[in-house]
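Appendix B. Chain record.
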Amino acid sequence: MSHRQSQGSMGDKSPLLLENTFSSQLQLDQQSGRSSSNTDLSQPEEAKRTPVVLSTQSEAARKRGIQQLIPKNLAVSSRPKNRHHTTVVTMPVVLEAQKNAQRFSLAPDISWVDYDSDEGDGFSMRRNRRNKSYRAAVTSLDRDISSNKQDLLQPVAEERAPSPKPASSPGRKRTLGRKRNQKHGGSFKDEPRFYQEIKERGLQSNTLSTDDDEFTQVPEEDQGIVVKNYKEAYMTWSQLPKVQEKGILEKITPEERKRQEAMFEIMTSEYSYQHSLSILVRHFKGSEALRKTMTTTEHHHLFSNISVIQQVSKRFFDDLERRHQLNPVIQDISDIVQDHATNHFEPYIIYCSNETFQQRTLQKLLASNTAFKEVLKQIECSPECGGLPMISFLILPMQRVTRLPLLMDTICQKTTKQTPEYYAARWALKAISKLVKSCNDGARRMERTEQMYTIQKQMEFGKIKPFPLVSSSRWLLKRGELAICLEELGIFWKAFSHKSYYLFLFNDVLIVTRKKRQESYVVCDYATLENVEVEEAQVDSKLYLRLAMNPNSEGRCEQMALVAENKLDRARWVTALQRHKETWSIINKDDLPQYEATKAYMPKEPDELSLQQAEVVIVLQEVDGWCYGERMRDGERGWFPASCATQITNRTALESNIQRMERLRKETNV
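Structure tokens predicted for this chain:
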């Protein structure tokens, strides 16, 4: 009762009275000649003294239920603002704490602040051990009083459900297996990303060639940013709860770990790809409003067999996931990749062969169909589509199928040589590379055949000896109009000559025509490409092209001087005319610059190169913001805007890319 009365009276007095009371207590201690460290705080010595009782039975403590209080100025400076669990203790006033500060130390036991946690795994324990405010509070406890713990304050943890959003530490790694919104038990399925927004680590030839564990590295957070929207592509194999709980990382070698990461990435990226395909099928192809703005033929050309592609992707992912569910340590997936590439991926060839009609239909609708543009814009701006344009969804199958050989090559390099798994990976790489070649050939064949029939209808041979233009082995390299240099002609020829020629350059023949009317041409001369010589010159700021056809269509030598509009136009014509004589193949490509595509590029001219995001190109020449290069995955050459790619400057990456190119072309016969 005396305890309660004293505490109750103290609670009603002002801080000044409290300080006076303890000052008188200190004077009594000095007169009695006893040290405060030897005083038994649990039993008052004299009735006239007002003892300081530390107890959870006090009125002040009861006002807080079963919680305890600490001075506010000790807790404010370092406790996080977003606390979900609070343990409160009452401590002696400042004068007493200052008097005994140098004689008191921490108790050897783990204090209650170490367990101020709402997450577990010992993470908050380590965090709170560093909490200076609690250390300052604990130092006021007497080491000698630890024997009478039953009389001292004992922390009473507040039983409360943990918050769904626990506070995180700056140094803590973050994964997609976070505790909130877990629909799949902390797997990569919890927060799928658009395939357009991710870049597989296996696409980089030097990703796993170093000792650094790049698969588990997380970009460092900028502590200066208070609010930001950082989101990883997907969780890695090492971050899987099953892998961590079973301690698998300690049981396998670093090389096997990288192999597991490479195989797991094919599965996770396939899931992201499947997620983006579902958006394309559900929101674009399945939109009735969009369907009403076009004809049935246009709708078919636009979406082709994308629904079949989605089903193929789902079966492929299901087989990969079943293999992973059998054992967190994946034995192999090469047999699955080879089986699907050989027996189930044929719809990819059909879809890629339709690319020409798809691009042409989309350009036509965007240029002439206002209703289509308005409905399409509404769909693209919807949250489900992430603000991405429809074209980024339409090219997904081409993008995915061209990445699979690179991902399989990474698995080959991370698999121990001369093992069954290594040979299985090589066979899978050959199978998927053969599929990609068929997709490329299908797309080119459809485009070239249609183009040759169109050009044949537009040409009139007149008095020139005709020849069959359409052939399965002939395709267009470049076409365009070039002005005639009149200074090279005599007075008589200036009066009767045309001001320009329109050239059609095929892979085996050059046809010189005169434009009769729109989309109609009269053939003036032609020669096989091996009999055409070209020289470039510049006189008085004019860019000349001197062509010599020996022999021409009539069996004699014919020369002409043409003028290009600019330096880029001249360079593109010279490159196209000398393509059959190119010597780039014998040049040491180790010293040539390499560029990585930062966004997809769809060619608008026959001599341009199509690029998918993250593809690597060896640049042979650069003119006025355009690059002429060789695509590393298949050796295809063409021009592309330099703004679509960035130059690779890392020497290790450059060497690794060259090695990968040579390896792929040798093993896949590309």
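Further analysis of this model is presented in Appendix C.
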